[in-house]
Every structure is written in structure tokens, then in C-alpha cells.
User: Fold Gustatory receptor from Ramazzottius varieornatus.
Amino acid sequence: MVPNIAVALRGILILVFLAITKIDLASMCDELNNVVCMSLSRSEVGRKIRKWTIWNAGIVLYCVGAFIPVCTLSAVHTAQLSNQTFTGDLVLKPFHGTVKMWLYVLLEALFSWLPYLLSHLILITATTCSIVLFDCCKTVNANLHRLEANAAVLCTDSMMKKLQYEERCSGVCSELDALAGELEDLMRTRAAIFHFIERLNHSLGFVFCLSYLVDIVASGGMLAVLVTNEERTEVAFPTKLVGTIVFITYATFPYVPMVMVTEAADNANYILYQITIKAYSLIKRQLGTTLNLILGDFRMMMNMFPIHFTAARIFHIDRNFLVATFSFLFTFAILLEELLGQMSVKALVASSTNTSALLQAVLNSTNASTTELPEN
Assistant:
């Protein structure tokens, strides 16, 4: 019952939230397109679009295709649990009303399963955006690695002498200015990625939070029924097992690209630190003043404005978030199993105590009858 209520509420609440907030998805798509154009070349964009399309189609097919067996098994399980066929009457607890089983399944499909799938498609949209942003962050990191190699070449003795001579003669260092210009372009790209992710957090943070909590509740509810084996039907075990697996994947896999974006963005900070170390000998000789300023601004921006996804500003979506999810569900299953075992032992002890008392009473009554026979 709890998983069904959670699934129904998630779809309705997310659709109502989107209707109230009226998120401008068109402008967000335009902003994402600008981020892609700043990060990737035209040839790379053509190759990446095919990759992103395949990933998006695969995620949609899995989420929809995995949910259909869960719904089908759930409908069969409900019919068997109430000992009704699809043309029979189903009692609606706790209202004591009745409705045809086929009508109940139809209403559940329209007002629970379909809104859930629609709300899940919104989450898949954010997941696809994360895959796009991950490729953008990887490209930024690759360009930073290239600039790191260029900085290492410029720091050799022969190149530094050449740069010093060039600066004395013309007052500028073309190689250092080119390096600083490329760093500035990458800083603008990184700022655009940060701005888009913050907008995504602001617009869909509530969707992230509610989707995750509902999927955890649904996974925990089905896991509880699976462990306790209370709802006994022919399809109870496959229903709860498949449901548990599907909702656990719903609660984790769509957020994996978001974690990958966060880690790729954090890796850029380390690469920038390596560039600063390699360029220190130039800065010490008072070469590349502009480069020094841009490096300082870049490091400050990355430290003050870290890239991460948040769920309604309640928790961050990172690697610890995924590990904690699996740990929580695993611990929950163990606690249920232990609690069920303790309850079985207590029931067995109580049954043994009652049996011993009954036997003692029978023996006492037998002894009393045997004692009274001679007197008669």
C-alpha cells in the first residue's frame, strides 16, 4: 500500500509543481546549446549528438520498459490478493466501497502509473543534460591538460630566455598572451557550465528531491514485503523482487551522470593547480603578468563557485549520496530480517510456554482424578 501511495503522489506532485512554476525549458535548451558551442568544436558536436541521442533513447526505453512489468505484476498481485478476477468486485479499504477490478486497474494506470512515467521523463531530461555537461567538462579538462603541457614547454631555460628577449624588444610575449587567452576562454566556458547547473538546480531541484525520496520509499516498502513474506500470492515474490530492483535503479542510476559531472569539474581544479606550479618560474621572473592574474581569477572562481547538483538545497548529489543509498537499503533489509527472526523466536517461546502450561494442567487434572478414585 505504501509504495502505491508514494508512486501516485510523486507523479501528481511533480506535474502540479511544473504547472505552477512554469519552467522556461526553451531558454534552458538555448543556454545548454550555448554551453555546448563554447566547449566543443562543430565536428565534435556532430559526433556527440549521436552519442547523446543513443544514451537518451536507451535510458527512456529502460525506464519505461522496466516499469511496465512492475505495473503488470502489481495488477495481477492485487487481483490474487483479493481473490478476484479482473471482472470481479474489489473492496476499497478502508472505505468499504466496491469497484470492478478492471476499472481499478484502469484508474490506477491513468492517475498513478502514467503521471509517474511523465514525472520520470522530466528526471531523464536532467540526466541527459548531465551527460552533455559531462562531455563539456571532459573537453575543458582536456584543453587544460594541453595548456599544462604548453606551460611546461614555456618554462624551459631556452624558452624563458626567448620570452625575456621578446618582452624587452616589443614589450609583449605572444606565447604567454596566447596561453592566457585560451585560459580566459576556458574560464568563461566553466562559468557558463556553472550557471546552467545552478539554473537546473533551481528549476528541478524539487523534482530531484521528491523523485529520490519516493523511489527510496517504494524500494523500502517492497523490500519489507519481500523479506516478511506477508502478502502471499503466486506472483508476490516476483512482483516485489522486480519492483525492488527497478525502484533501486530508479533511485540511483539517473543520478550517476550528475555525479560524473561533479567529479570532472573537481578534477579541473587539480589541473589548474598543476598549471600554476609549472608557470611559477615565469611569474617569478615577472613574465606573464596577465597569465598570473587569469590563473588567480580562475582558481578563485573554482573555489568560490564549485559545481554540484543539489536536490532542493537539501542534499548534494555526489558519490557519497549513491553509496549511502545502497548502504541504507542493505541495512534496512538486514534489520528487517533480524527483527523478523527475533519475532519468530519470541512467538516460538510463547507457544512453547503455552504448551507447557497446558500439559501441566492436564497432568494436574489427571493426578487429581487418580487420587479421588480410591475414596469412591
